[in-house]
Design a protein that fits this description.
The chain is α+β, with helices and mostly antiparallel strands and 155 residues long. It has five helices and five strands; from the N terminus they run E-E-H-E-E-E-H-H-H-H. Bound molecules: FE2/S2 (inorganic) cluster (2 copies).
């Protein structure tokens, strides 16, 4: 059997246009890491369960391990690398570092992306827990993560 055909794929990632030859069903997670070369987005479960691979697609939170690259065609992608501005970490990134919201770090990029999305339209503490419920962490016990999100939003 011959290898599946690659096709030209184009999208904007972190404000920069990208195009390359990619199989249309390649996971967006893999395209971002292997073809675009941005390795901040992590793989945990690879099954849509852990949130480690969270990115924004046209501003919406998606699990990039569950999105075929063809679905990103012509769209805007934001990854963890796209949050910093002018060489300064995003306040959410700073807070995670300051509050110890990151330990092994596998969940952290996805957790921060989900937290940034939540911070656009925040609600109660319970709402925050719900907003982050799709992002699993095996290290921190979540308390420091919640504290980091609260601190970033108070900035
Ligand atoms: S790696 Fe995508 S949800 Fe776990
Ligand atoms: S810091 Fe290790 S899984 Fe969250």
């Amino acid at each position: 059997m011959s290898a599946p055909a690659e096709e030209k794929s184009s999208f904007v990632i972190n404000g920069k246009s990208w195009s390359g030859a990619v199989h249309p069903l390649k996971r967006l997670l893999d395209t971002i890491r292997e073809d675009v070369g941005l390795t901040g987005t992590k793989e945990g479960c690879g099954e849509g369960e852990c949130g480690a691979c969270t990115v924004f697609l046209d501003g919406q939170v998606v699990m990039s391990c569950m999105v075929p690259t063809c679905q990103a065609e012509g769209k805007q992608i934001t990854t963890i690398e796209g949050l910093a501005e002018n060489g300064r970490l995003h306040p959410m990134q700073e807070s995670f570092a300051q509050e110890g919201g990151a330990q092994c770090g596998i969940c952290t990029p996805g957790m921060i992306m989900a937290a940034v999305a939540y911070a656009r339209d925040p609600g109660s503490a319970e709402d925050m827990r719900e907003a982050l419920a799709g992002n699993l962490c095996r290290c921190t016990g979540y308390i420091r993560i919640f504290e980091a999100v609260k601190k970033a939003m108070a900035k």
